[in-house]
Amino acid sequence: MMFRLVLSCGFAADEEELSSSATFDTTPPKQESKSLAEKLENLGRVYKNDDHPILQEWWLLGRYHGQYYNADGSDAPQDGWENRRFRIGSQARLFEKMTVHAQMVSGFDMNPFYNGFTELWSQWAFDDQFMVTVGQQKHRFTHDRNVSSRYINTLERSMFLNMFNADYTPAITASGNTGQFAYYTGVFSNATGPDMWDSFTNYDSGYSLLASGTWNVNRWLDLDEAFFNACYLYSDANQHATNLNRYKDGFSTALILTNGPVSLVSEVLLGTRSENGDAIGINIQPGFFLTEKIQLATRYQLALADEEDGLLAQRRYERASGVSTGDVYQAGYAGFNYYIAGHRIKLMNGIEYANMSGHDVWTASVAFRMFWGPNSNGPFPMAKMLKPNS
Q1: Which pLDDT score, from 0 to 100, does residue 162 have?
Q2: Half-sphere exposure of 137 (CA within 13 A, CB side)
């Protein structure tokens, strides 16, 4: 490991300048105090040296998400504390172009403590426009799914997206960014689970194909940022599939807008050729930063199916409270997020009302979330904090 010593030297003014000066200001320059988010920006980074020929960067990474919920629906009320997510791992950048990433996950309420790996992959970046990733990785179908759980503004992702059963799975993917356009595509196994050997060697579960593109469309809009995302999914699932085993085809489009303290994420999702028919969902998420630390987060969901049992309510909270299947689903969410140290340490609270074909449930939640490790890049809300109006 290399350490550098930086020496700072000053040069005196010439004698004529000194003699003509009546006084000298010897007060040291005022140092602006850093926020807690700035102080923790590199939380988890163990080593960084861009000049080293082998190891340029090494991180310890992970996250903890815990939440209290109270769901009141047609059946008995449900409430309790849930250790929602706990993950630990490591990531290293090698030979300037290679990234190696491993991250284990615990089971529900940390039982068992080790429940396999969410991610176990290696990436080679030929350049910014072409990167290849091989191994267990996230299936990034839809913008809603692409945004890490470290940055989502609501307690859970949308109901209809969760019906696709997308998870971490072995895959070969290619991605790149040209500045105005980013793409992501790959071939995925439809097998996933805690046994990594079985996930990587199970060829009887079918496969899925994904193509996704994101365009910077701000040249047509007078906003701070504007992106348009489109995805297509094909899944050749069979009876052995544990991943992406509901719809044969998936289509999604999303418009992601930010201007000052205001954000608006709108997404339309279509699933076709399911045993329970076709369905369409709309997910609209307006947000507003009241201060640099407090965000008002809201969401409206609407999903429609052409079969009476074509929709399936959220596995967490809704099903246990009396909302199960139907052909029309609506939900509204409103809450406040308090960013103690940006997304690295934050508190979330909100309340959601959901209705499925005449059955409804209210869910209130308070959540604590933190993570350590490198940030992700991408359209809002990936790691981005908006500033309130001054």
Answers
A1: 96
A2: 21
Mean pLDDT of 2-24: 36
CA distance 360 to 357: 8
Q: Please tell me the distance from the alpha carbon of residue 62 to that of residue 89, in angstroms, as a whole number.
A: 6
Give the chain's mean pLDDT: 90
Cβ(74)–Cβ(361) below 8 Å: yes
**First and final C-alpha spacing in the chain:** 44
Beta bridge partners of 294: 338
| Model pLDDT, residue 23 | 37
Cis peptide bond prior to 374, omega within 30° of 0: no
CATH, domain 43-372, list 1.10.1740.10, 3.30.43.10, 2.40.420.20, 2.40.160.10 = 2.40.160.10
pLDDT at 202: 73
Angle (CA) 61-40-8 rounded to 5° is 120
Two tokens, residue 279: 């369905």
Per-residue pLDDT tens digits for 120-151 = 999 999 999 999 999 999 999 999 999 999 99
pLDDT tens-place string over residues 346-386: 999 999 999 998 899 999 999 999 999 999 999 999 999 99
Q: What is the pLDDT of residue 17?
A: 35
Spell out the domain ranges in the chain: 43-372
Concatenating the DSSP letter of every residue in 191-235 gives ---S-HHHHHH--SSEEEEEEEEEEE-GGGS-SSEEEEEEEEEEE
Instruction: Determine the Cα–Cα distance for residues 140 and 123; give it in Å rounded to an integer.
Output: 16
Tell me the residue type at 4. R
Q: What is the pLDDT of residues 261-279, one digit of tens each?
A: 999 999 999 999 999 999 9
Q: Provide the H-helix boundaries in the chain.
A: 15-19, 36-39, 143-146, 159-162, 196-201
With b for 16 or more beta-carbon neighbours within 10 A and e for fewer, the 288-322 pattern comes to bbeeebebebbbebebbbeeeebbbbbebbbbbbb
Strands 55-73 and 78-94: antiparallel
At 293 the pLDDT is 96
